[in-house]
């Protein structure tokens, strides 16, 4: 079993109740150090509550969590000292300039003046904001504000950064820009990034591991690939000009085929779980079907996610927490 | 701790400064106030403006009023502008955040009073040129400054306490307005509710105490009230609750 130091976050049956509402329901999770971890879930799933609990901003009702090896109840201030955060809102002082915003948080983290100035210049330059450093950020676009908020979160070189839906509300161009910046940042700074999002494309591109949460319960955790594998679609598209209705009827009656449809010489098959496409190809060839192309479609993270959302009511938290 | 308090104070001042430098956002009001209180009033009243005992109560009251105009924004404003949670997620302690905001407001009130006192002094000396410069009596000046600090501190404490509870700046301002009316009118109404002979007796007793003692008692009273109200605000500062608000 890996040592505590190998994990940036370890939650053990972490539960948070707000009155009658259970925002986190026995969340057990381990986030290895040095990776970008994506926490996926629909609105109100408990993603933001998890971040608040990890930062020691709220006391859990049950269970416990260790962040960077520190207990969130006992060592909340030390955890906040060693972490950076971009929460639900950018949290920038809009009347202040970009430099003043960063300078304030640099002072709060006791960065010496020279170090602070160098770091501010480095980050503003990296995010393409240096030229506009002396403007009040209230005049900036949302994308620029988000970049500045990310810069603020990593200003003091934290060991762990929480980013709560960093690309939420951005246009596609700004989203791609910020996503590229985040990927570069994570690679260059070597920090652990805990990223919540409901943008599955983003999670797939950025994250080494993802967790899926709904209704405060962790449904699944693993690499995007392993989650896709859980929900391997088993979808196969076969292109053929000699396919007849009889072939289609015969295919539909096979035990390894869940569904079959044909459109303009393209046969779409959904295979049953664990079924292989090879016997079907062999059968088609035996029945004089000339095959031009066979494409096995890969399940996307979105397929896996939607599958988990749909199956949520049938998955127990204990089942869901395992890969 | 001191460094953290100063960091929060620095940030608050950056925001005040921006407001003051912008004519549209408050700089013009500040200029008009400085013109009326620091130039017109002293020139109209003359050297008496410097020597009058009323100054001892007048400037602390004005400074506290100035503090009241911005302190309601302190926590409620951060909440409304969505900067509070990020601040709470920083390494700054509860007390550093709260005291930093109070210190900034007190410095604002004090700065306002001192600046107007100095401008007024210059205006009086220019308008009523005498062989020797017209100056404040040192003791009276020190008492005025001490009272200004404590009145601002008390007002800032009340303001932060109210601002912690209010969900919007408007709500904080409304609650603060009511608190100011109660705090200023309350003692007067109580005094008027007393029987005439009791009032006369009380006035006689106060007059008999002597000027220096009245000043000392007032300073001690304001200090005690400030400590109580700031202590209550600190006790009310719940990071988790504020983060959820």
Written overview of the protein:
The complex is a heterodimer of chains A (323) and B (245). Chain A is an alpha/beta fold. Chain A has helices spanning 47-54, 76-82, 98-108, 113-126, 142-154, 172-189, 200-206, 224-230, 245-252, 278-286, 301-311, 317-320, and strands at 7-18, 21-32, 36-40, 62-67, 70-71, 83-86, 160-164, 192-197, 209-214, 217-222, 235-240, 257-263, 266-271, 291-297. Chain B has 245 residues and is an all-alpha fold. Chain B has one domain (2-244). Chain B is built from 12 helices and no strands. In chain B, helix 5 (73-80) runs parallel beside helix 8 (138-165) and helix 8 packs parallel to helix 11. The model of chain B has no long low-confidence stretch (mean pLDDT 88). Classes of the chains: A alpha/beta (323), B mainly alpha (245). At the A-B interface, helix 2, strand 6 and helix 3 of A face helix 1, helix 6 and helix 12 of B.
């Amino acid at each position: 079993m890996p040592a505590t130091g190998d994990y940036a976050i370890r939650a053990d049956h972490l539960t948070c109740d707000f009155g009658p509402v259970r925002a986190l329901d026995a969340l057990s999770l381990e986030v290895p150090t040095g990776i970008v971890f994506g926490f996926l879930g629909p609105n109100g799933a408990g993603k933001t509550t998890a971040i608040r609990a990890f930062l020691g901003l709220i006391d859990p009702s049950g269970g416990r969590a260790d962040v960077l090896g520190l207990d969130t109840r006992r060592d909340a201030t030390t955890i906040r000292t060693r972490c950076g955060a971009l929460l639900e809102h950018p949290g920038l002082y809009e009347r202040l300039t970009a430099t003043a915003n960063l300078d304030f948080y640099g002072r709060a983290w006791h960065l010496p003046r020279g170090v602070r100035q160098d770091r501010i210049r480095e980050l503003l330059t990296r995010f393409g904001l240096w030229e506009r450093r002396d403007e009040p950020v209230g005049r900036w676009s949302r994308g620029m504000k988000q970049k500045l908020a990310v810069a603020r979160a990593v200003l003091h070189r934290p060991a762990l950064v929480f980013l709560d839906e960093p690309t939420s509300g951005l246009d596609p161009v700004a989203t791609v820009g910020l996503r590229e910046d985040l990927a570069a940042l994570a690679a260059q700074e070597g920090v652990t990034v805990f990223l919540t999002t409901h943008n599955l494309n983003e999670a797939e591109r950025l994250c080494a591991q993802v967790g899926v949460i709904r209704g405060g319960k962790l449904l699944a955790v693993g690499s995007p690939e392993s989650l896709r594998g859980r929900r391997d679609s088993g979808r196969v598209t076969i292109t053929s000009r000699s396919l007849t209705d009889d072939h289609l009827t015969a295919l539909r009656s096979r035990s390894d085929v869940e569904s079959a449809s044909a459109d303009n010489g393209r046969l779409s098959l959904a295979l049953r779980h664990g079924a292989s496409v090879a016997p079907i190809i062999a059968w088609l060839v035996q029945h004089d079907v000339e095959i031009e192309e066979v494409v096995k479609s890969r399940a996307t993270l979105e397929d896996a996610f939607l599958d988990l959302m749909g199956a949520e009511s049938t998955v127990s938290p204990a089942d869901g927490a395992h890969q | 701790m001191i460094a953290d308090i100063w960091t929060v104070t620095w940030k608050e001042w950056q925001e005040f400064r921006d407001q003051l430098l912008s004519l549209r956002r408050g700089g013009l009001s500040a200029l008009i106030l400085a013109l009326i209180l620091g130039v017109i009033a002293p020139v109209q009243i003359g050297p008496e403006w410097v020597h009058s005992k009323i100054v001892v109560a007048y400037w602390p009251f004005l400074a506290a009023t100035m503090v009241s105009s911005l302190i309601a924004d302190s926590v409620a404003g951060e909440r409304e502008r969505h900067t509070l949670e990020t601040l709470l997620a920083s390494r700054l302690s509860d007390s550093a955040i709260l005291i930093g905001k109070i210190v900034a407001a007190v410095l604002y009130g004090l700065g306002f009073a001192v600046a107007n006192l100095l401008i007024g002094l210059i205006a009086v000396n220019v308008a009523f040129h005498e062989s020797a410069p017209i100056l404040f009596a040192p003791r009276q000046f020190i008492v005025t400054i001490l009272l200004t600090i404590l009145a601002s501190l008390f007002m800032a404490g009340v303001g932060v306490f109210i601002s912690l509870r209010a969900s919007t700046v408007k709500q904080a301002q409304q609650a603060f307005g009511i608190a100011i009316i109660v705090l200023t009118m309350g003692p007067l109404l109580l005094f008027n509710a007393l029987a005439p002979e009791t009032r006369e007796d009380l006035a006689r007793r106060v007059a008999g105490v002597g000027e220096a003692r009245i000043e000392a008692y007032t300073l001690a009273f304001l200090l005690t009230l400030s400590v109580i109200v700031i202590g209550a605000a600190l006790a009310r500062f719940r990071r988790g609750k504020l983060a959820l608000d």
